[in-house]
Every structure is written in C-alpha cells, then in structure tokens.
Amino acid sequence: MTTTTQFEAGHKITGTPFSPTRETIRAFCEASLDFNPLHLDDEYMKGDFGKTNFGGIIMHGMNNFGVITKMLTDWLHEQNAVQRRLETRWKSPVKPGDTITPKGRITSLKKTANSRWVCLDVEVRNQRNEVVAAGEAMAEFPQ
Amino acid sequence: MTAQTFETDFWKDNELRKTWEQIVPGEPRKTIPYTLTLEAIQKYCRVVGDTHPLYFDEEYAKTTPYKGLIAPPTIHILLMFACTPADDWMRSPGTVNAGQSWSYNIPARPGDTIRLEARALDKFIKKDRLFVVHDNVFFNQHNQVICSGRGQTIRPA
User: Fold this and answer.
1) Fewer CB atoms < 10 Å away: N or C end of chain A?
2) Domain annotation covers residue B84
3) Would you say the ipTM is above 0.90?
C-alpha cells in the first residue's frame, strides 16, 4: 500500500487485493441486504441476460466500490483528508476464485478558498489484468 | 427494520414491484427510516476487508477529527436496501448495476436514524436494454446530508 503524501499528477496508489469466494459473496448479501439472485442462485444464472450469459453467480458490482473505497480511505484518513466522490462503471463481472486489485492515479489538483482537491482515475483489475471496474474519485485535503 | 425481519427471497414480492414500463421518472420511491447499528457497520466492513480503526476502535476514533466511531463512505450500499421496502424495484431479480456515482458529505455514525429520498430520474433504452437512472439522497436524524448518489441499472425485461 502506498502511504506517502504526494500532490502531483501521476502519483499512484494501490489497494489491498481482494479474493471473492462463494462465501464472501454470500456474506456480502447478508451485510448489504442485497439478495439479488445474480449473487446467490446458480440455476438462475444459467439463463441469459439479453446477450450476456454469466455462467454462474457473480460478485456484487458494489463490492468493487467497497474495495476501491478502502484503498482511498486508507490513504486519506491518515492525512486528515476526506473521500468526497467516487464514480465507477462495471466493465466485466467478477466471479468466485478471481483476485481483484484496485489502483488509483492522481490526474489533477485544484485549490479552492479552504481546501485542496485531488482528482484521481481509479480502476480495478482481475488476475488476468482485465479491467473489471473503472471510474474517477475526488478527495478533499486541508489547506 | 432489522436483518431478522428482512425478506431475503427477492422473488417473493416480485409481482408487487414496478417494471421498467411502470417506473415513472420523478416519482418518489417509498422509503423506510433505518437505525444504523455498530454491528451492521462492522459486519459490512469485515465483508469488504476494511477494518480501519475508525470503524472498530472507539478509543482511537475519539482522538481523530471525527471524535468517535463512524461508518465508511460506502455504507450506502447497505442503506439502499435497509431504507427501502420489499416491493421496491431495486430488489427485482435480475436488476443489473451498470454504474454509480456518489458524493459524500458527512459520515454516517452508529446509532444514526437514516432517511432516504429516492426516485427514478430518467429511463431510456440503449443497445436493446432497459435502463433506469436513480437519484438517491441519505440524511441523518439531524437532516444533514450523508451522501447523494446517482446510479444506472439495467432492468429485467
């Protein structure tokens, strides 16, 4: 994990890898109350979703949100900075047995009257180096 | 609402839920206030592997600018289902999350009573798929905004 304080475009941070299993996906259902059969029911997941067939249960897309946020907040909390925004799009499903790793890269900086703002590109890749989620984040640092 | 009374079979009330055809952009969704417990926060944190002491160690948390335990920003993942009734269309089986953007104001804290204001903001068809745009704002018991979010889901046909 990168913990240095850097305020320049191009600075990179990496988060903790996360390896979803059938058990972690079930636990995410319990903890988030999202019991959509996409995450529970292998029979249901044998069917097609439009042109897509997932071939089995998939991790909650929002689990990526949690993994990216842990990366950001591990970096921000110790600098008294605050995660202000996160936007992601899901590019590819994550399945039990995959390992996903979040990364971030500062793209721009902005000073306002009371704060310094840091914008980052974020992405999550699986063990095959495929992007499973991509987006942008914004954090507020004290002056 | 507690996890014990939460209906985990999302097929059960499915006929009561609005389909893409029936969803009216702009119309408020029914929501339910929810009391967020430390137990629920920590259960969520453990599942995503986030055990930062701000969420677990009260003595430590008191020494920080937050002056006590807080929930991580993404607790809205739980709040979305905790604050909506069983006939809400977020629970329609086959709902696929296509992307989300959230803006964070102040953290939720253990013991907060959280209220959601939510609606569909827009709906459209793209690549033969039925999309709805969601608009959600969570408030605490002091009417302070915790976070606000916009999302897109692909609706079951």
Assistant:
1) C
2) yes
3) yes
pLDDT at B6 over 60: yes
Residue B6 near chain A (CB below 8 Å): yes
Best A26, A33, A44 residue to mutate vs chain B (most B CBs within 10 Å): A33
Residue B109, pLDDT above cutoff 90 = yes
CATH number of the domain encompassing residue B145: 3.10.129.10
CA distance B47 to B126: 34
B142 within some domain:
yes
Per the structure, the count of domains in chain B is 1
DSSP string, A33-91: ----GGGT-TTGGGS-BTTB---S----HHHHHHHHHHHHHHHHHTTT-EEEEEEEEE-
DSSP B139: E
CATH code that applies to domain A12-19+60-142: 3.10.129.10
Distance (Å, rounded) from C-alpha B51 to C-alpha B58? 13
Residue whose tokens read 């897309």: A61
DSSP-derived letter for residue B1 is -
**Domain span at residue B101?**
25-34+74-154
Tokens describing residue B102: 């959230």
pTM as predicted = 0.93
Q: Under a CB-based contact definition with an 8 Å cutoff, are residues A46 and A57 in contact?
A: no
* Across B50-78, average pLDDT: 97
